[in-house]
Amino acid sequence: MQHLMSPLDLSVEELDELLTLANDIERHPQKYAHACEGKKLATCFYEPSTRTRLSFEAAMLNLGGSVLGFSSADSSSAAKGESVSDTIRVISCYADICAMRHPKEGAPLVASQKSSIPVINAGDGGHQHPTQTLTDLLTIRSLKGRLDNLTIGLCGDLKFGRTVHSLIHALIRYPNIRFVLISPEELRVPSYIREDVLRKNQVPFQEVERLEDAMGELDILYMTRVQQERFFNEDDYVRMKDFYILNRQKMALAREDMIVMHPLPRVNEISVDVDDDPRAAYFKQAQYGVYVRMALILTLLEVGVC
Ligand code: NCD
Known about the structure:
Elements: H1 12-27, E1 40-45, H2 51-62, E2 66-70, H3 84-94, E3 97-102, H4 107-113, E4 119-124, H5 130-144, E5 150-155, H6 162-171, E6 177-182, H7 191-199, E7 205-208, H8 211-214, E8 220-223, H9 234-240, H10 248-251, E9 259-261, H11 282-300
Parallel strand pairs: 1-2, 1-3, 3-4, 5-6, 5-8, 6-7, 8-9
Helix pairs in contact: 1-5, 1-11, 2-11, 3-4, 5-6, 5-11
């Protein structure tokens, strides 16, 4: 049985197959409409979510399956002190597959070790968010036509932003990838990513503070929200939260074929006047998230569709 804890749990070939399946689902949704009839997805969310939880649920419903679950720690037995290991053993009796989000790094991994059904990490603290990465890879491959030969600007909270950490891990496996890491000094990528992931694999990257300095050379600009819930001190958050605001003036410095991505939710980091720019891809990205989660559920449940 396979779980998904990190994007690296899938080889480049497996990822490629999964993205191709997601593209087929996009083109022929009817073909997959009954593929998971009789199967149940449990969504165990110990931390707030709109897109991830609902896109998992939409994905399972689109496949003809059913969903059950909880959307906050307060409404589950975690509030009574139950461990994730016990919870997953019980959920294994009720459902065929589980998507779990947890504020503690590693909690879905602990759950997977006691689970008799596939567990998907739907975000664990500031660590990883592999299904957002699958969404991001599908968006990039569909809109840019490739996952290699790209200069990617990652902008905002690179310290706590788990979507950025997972995306870096996944993209360095493709040839000729270059990163421009755009953040204030205090929100730079953690040193384990800079040293053990980027430098160790000889991936070219540059760190800059001003978005304007990077804009003109990017194929993709990946904006992120400052992760308020992971700050220890409210004053630091208030100081950082509006550090970057992408607006029309800054978009004028970008290439005609650059795309702007954002895992959402957006706070202030992208002005709404950018939404009508044809290069704004963040709402399409949310739609791709449903197709890729459908493909992932089919893959982990080993459901074949002819
Ligand atoms: C992201 C997350 O939860 O890490 N959201 C999402 O899943 N689309 C990004 C964020 O919360 O900023």
